[in-house]
Multifunctional fusion protein
Amino acid sequence: MEITSLFRENIRQLAPYSTARDEYDGELGIYLDANENPFDNGFNRYPDPHNKRIRAKISAMRGIPAERIFVGGNGSDEPIDLLFRVFCEPRQDEALSISPSYGMYRVAAATNDIRLVEAPLTEDFRLDTEAFLSRATHRTKLAFLCSPNNPSANLLDPAEVEKVIRGFDGIVVLDEAYIDFAEHEGFLPRLAEFPNLVVLQTLSKAWGMAGIRIGFAFAAPEIVAAMERIKYPYSVNIITERLVLQELERENLRREQIALLVEERRKLVAALEKIPLIRHVFPSDANFVLVRVDEPRRVYDNLISRGIIVRDRSRIAGCEGCLRLTVGTPDENVALIEALRYPDRPFDKSAAPAASGSRRATVTRKSRETDITATLDLDNASPSKISTGLGFFDHMLDQIVHHGGFSLELTARGDLHVDEHHTIEDTALVLGEAFRQALGDKRGIGRYGFALPMDESRALVLLDFGGRIATRWDVELKRERIGDVPTEMFEHFFDSFAQAARCNLHIAARGRNEHHLIEGVFKAFARALRMAVERKPLDFDLPSSKGLL
């Protein structure tokens, strides 16, 4: 098959846009060719329009020559759109897709004014090869297969996929976004066998880079070259390139996470099969599971009310009554199972796990002496709402929030009629636990931090969220109380916080005015927290040479 004969005529004749970097590809020099700002801030130069470093890395990892790799700057969606533009004449040609499947094929076809013909899968989502190929005509230039398929989650029979590749006269686009979760290795190792095959893969799923938006098209060099000619010249920016190359070095971590997700998928399927309201659980080779229920909208709304967001697919032909459930963390999966198993049970929002990627935690502690709830958000500086019944203590906690740049809602009801001890101690334990939970795996945090002057006083707070627990208090207080708080409780507060947060905390302060002294301590503590929990935007390494915190 002569691949270039399938290109649109105008694409064959197209002279690509030439960037300044196309005309000079050296590494050193005084760059006065691209009208860039000459002052270096790390981002003042245009990125490599051909993504050579990413292609070289993927080539080495996958064993595919670089000239067979196209890098898409918006996941797999950019390659999908470009393939329509390379091969399909608007208002004239057609494309073919299985149904139900990934909705972007239909959107890209409509955007390019191409008729998309959909061939239904069988009731159990198998590919009927003869029925699929029978819908192709002389106008059909592209055929889309998604395996494992979205939303059905099943791997299409590889033998049937091969029949389509061999039996179709146009370009077969095999979308393998979820192939890492399947036992089958996919068709990438056999790419050279099939000149008319394009394999799409992405870093959004198994690699956990959905927020970065990078995908790949693996194809014959002629196809890749055509896609390069018509793409926007700088679709992958410098920040994205750096992050991708950084994350691609974590292949061992990726394998561990895939193994965990596959095991969690097995547990989730086993649990779902025992839940009465679920009529059927479809087999899954992806990182999600499709289930059929009697009243999908009611089940969906009930999950939403519990803070669990799934995908309602019940309006899609072939998926009537179905919900799509992504495999989450172990805690998230337990929350999902419990919500489905006991839909009428009252929901305790404070017991729900924080969303993945969120640095937010809600902690409740109830005892005979106190009833305390705290909601902490490390990445939101909303005004605090703090009430402990102790005015000066509230003022000090507000210093932590204001100067730390956090959001905190904390309500404490304690046995103040006895004394302040239990309220202050348990507040510290709750707050420390909230920090521990919100920090999660601690990747990318500063870890350490802070010294601060306060009028004639000065305070030094040394903090380490490394997991070792120790407290050192070097603050001399002569007054019995500051405001309505006994001075002996300040040391106890920080010691209790360190125990709950599992951190190392050293505090030293000197000064004449003890109100200033303690306020300086809390402000320095806040700034130390701010430094320690701050995430570096381009670095999500664990801040430990041991690789463990």
Remarks:
- Residues 3-249 form a domain with the Aspartate Aminotransferase; domain 2 fold (CATH 3.40.640.10).
- Residues 498 and 545 are 23 Å apart (CA to CA).
- The chain has three domains: 3-249, 253-351, 360-533.
- The radius of gyration is 29 Å.
